[in-house]
Amino acid sequence: MVQNNSGSFLKFIAYLQVIGIILVVLGHSFHEYPYDHYGNMLIYKMLYSFRMPLFVFVSGFLMLFTTRMVHKKKTSLSQFFTVKVKRLLLPFFVLTLVTFIPRAMMSDIADDTISPTFESLVQSVLYGDKMVIPYFWFLQASFILLITTYAFITVCEIPNIHNALIYIMLIGGATCIMIFLPENITTILSLDRAAELGIFFVCGIVYCRYSTYIDRYIIWTSVCFFAFISAAWAILYFVTENTAFVPICSLAGIAMCISLAKILESRKITVLDHLIGANYIIFLLSWYCNVASQQILHHYVQLPWWVYTILSLTSGIYIPWLAYKYLQSHRDSRWVRVTTFLLGQRLG
């Protein structure tokens, strides 16, 4: 649970997490678009401009809360490392192992072929572009960013991240180094993605640290501001597409989501409340629903492409959500405790 210094629940961050996971599942639900590769759809590309930067931004924001907590408890880097392994890498390993053989057997209806060999399994664990579940690169990239950030904070003894500029320079330097390294090195543990999106991680840290000052000048809860920043994001998408200025568009998209989240919070609009807390398990399990309701179903039944999209979106959100609610209501069961541990879940 995310809390501020007074201990009150930061609901807008919870809303950002829910908004982010809905956008992720939606983006994975256009697979059966018949007129072109779904990756070339305008709506897909526009959502892609900020949905993963939003996830990384939230991770950076939460990093500051984690840092404050662990400094109070004097948690060592090794202890912090262990916690993040259990939270991020353990579910990655477990679900990769569970999915590997079925995914290899489905190669005839999948977008690419996975060989059922030990070498292929090792590659799917190590390389971000060879994963059994493609978007699990986020788990590796988040792990890299969290561990390197905490190590940096610990070494420099900067619990409040006052000199975030130094970290921005480190991220920039890492990105430059990645440019000159061969692809078979940069894709190990999704290092390239961590370097590419690190700036949004830093922006999340900076906003968390200086939100009191930033919020004095930005009226996030204004519908007019939301409309303005939404229009700015849409315009920036077309202006910055295929240029080095795409991150500006991404930041506008993140600001749009922050405004939406704070409007929902301030106006007590509770339409997303039932999904709060379930975003992580939705991220982990939605791929199975997306594949079942698109590639597998399409292999046997011919339906309009948008029907597959609706089925994928709703099942990708609500089947994992039902699993989350079940785990919550049976948390005293031994097998549920084992399952939640293996999936890195925190049941509130």
Structure description:
- The chain is globular, with a radius of gyration of 20 Å.
- It contains 14 helices and no strands.
- The model has no long low-confidence stretch (mean pLDDT 85).
Kindly state the number of beta strands: 0
Mean pLDDT: 85
Shape: globular
Q: What level of helicity do the residues show?
A: over 70%
Strand content: under 5%
Q: Termini, distance in Å?
A: 7 Å
Structural class: mainly alpha
Characterize the quaternary organization of these chains. single chain
Determine the number of helices (DSSP H or I, runs of at least 4 residues).
14
Order of helices and strands: HHHHHHHHHHHHHH
Q: Measured on Cα atoms, how large is the radius of gyration? A: 20 Å
Sequence stretches where pLDDT stays below 50 over 5 or more residues? none
Largest sheet: none
Layout of secondary structure:
Layout: H1 11-27, H2 42-48, H3 51-72, H4 77-105, H5 118-126, H6 137-156, H7 164-180, H8 183-186, H9 191-214, H10 223-240, H11 246-266, H12 279-300, H13 305-329, H14 334-342
Helix pairs in contact: 1-3, 1-11, 1-12, 1-13, 3-6, 3-9, 3-11, 4-6, 6-9, 7-9, 10-11, 12-13
